[in-house]
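Deliverable D5.2: sample structural annotation.
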Amino acid sequence: MPASDADSDWWRSAAIYQVYVRSFADGDGDGTGDLTGVRAKLPYLAELGIDALWFTPWYLSPLADGGYDVADYRTIDPAFGTLGEAEKLIAEARQLGIGTIVDIVPNHVSDRHVWFRAACAARPGSPERGLFHFRRGRGADGELPPNDWESEFGGSAWTRLSDGEWYLHLFAPEQPDLNWAHPAVRREHEEILRFWFERGVAGVRIDSAALLAKDPYLPDFVAGTDPHPYIDRDELHDVYRSWRAIADEYGGIFVGEVWLPDSERFARYLRPDELHTAFNLSFLSCPWDAQQLRRTIDETLAEHAPVGAPATWVLCNHDVTRTVTRYGRDDTGFDFATKAFGTPTDLALGTRRARAAALLSLALPGSVYVYQGEELGVPEAEIPRDRIQDPMHFRSGGTDPGRDGCRVPLPWTGEPPAVESWLPQPRNWFSYAADGQAADPGSMLSLYRTALRLRRTEPGFGDGPMTWLPQSGSGVLAFARPGGLVCVVNLGERPAGLPAHKALLLTSGPLDEAGRLPRDTAAWLRAPHILGRDMSS
């Protein structure tokens, strides 16, 4: 339930659905998803049972990096619609009890942004260039980059202009980094936050939230240096404290994308006067292994506990391999460095595990994110090399397949659209169509609908305590939530017995003839109340 309604802590237990607008639903038939398409699917999303929609960037953008190269935060990209349509969408979703979370990308802007165009037209040392990180190069004629930093997409993090100066971009050259030591940069982003909160959004997701601040001397990177020259610098927290004050004025929330191995430093972003929540990326990348999953869950809960923030759980997003594909491979974890073309995949196995993982993630304490299409069980698509658009592929020299495979437009009906979509849909794509799955009680969509309904209506789900049960071990994860709710996931080699229970609420697949939980299957139970009370204390 969004923040405008009775529960101001809705975000602590929310189920949030990620919308990648370009690939969600095409309302005008031009092959690209748009806001008209999203508005038409709001009843579908309400029936699914989610509490909020997180939209990846829908602003004006040349789409050099899927919209994460923003040219104007106050204009909706014409391919998606208009600001007026966005305002209608926010209001219509709110009427259905669904909040809206927008995405901002404060580390950088598009090279088409008015600020960067002015900086390129200005002379070296000008105020316009002070909004970014411009430097003279090294070497006799400045022909070498100012330092040795590497782009997240591969290659140097510096690009040279014709006047000889270089500019910093931790991502693609089309995404110049902003100088967060400049007061105008801070003012502009505070105004952007107010602009969207005043239009009724429930929250803001912050991309690459730990990368904004840079060492002013821009030194070469030396492994083990503390503080890091551009990751998780202490001055960042002052930025987020000022943002939190703005969000509190509107009853809004923040969700940070924070990739940090140090749990103590991660937790600093979630202090009561900073961000509300942050993505749990260790769970997303964890292999399908009981011991590793339990360790990840324990570490996640432990790092959130000191600051009283709820954990978040996510299996997939617009950057990583689809869950049914990842879980059907020999290596079930995720790492950008290991992505490769032609990796063998057992989709039947991956789908079985993805169904079980859905019940696991939805039963854990805190909030949960569902990336569009996960509720349909769509796999990662193999994009023909001549159709790939992701800059990660090109910056890798063609060895990385990129992220387009998880961004293919969703199949809504069993028939291909009249106009080919912006990314090609595989031949078997329409066997996953939403309309067919809606009528099938055994489908992935039906599983998600039932699970999300139970998560909303049954006591024990969402934020709150959990306790591991004695059944955990030997490949089994079993834990109790308040009120006698129990989740059991069998990742072991053999069927597993279920704890004593008075009701079987839901399973990801059928039990065997002996009433046991087969391999790669999960179950939700309602145990005797005294058991639930003891276990959740």
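Annotation notes: The longest helix spans residues 347-363. The two ends are 27 Å apart (CA to CA).
The annotation will be released with the project's public dataset once the embargo ends.
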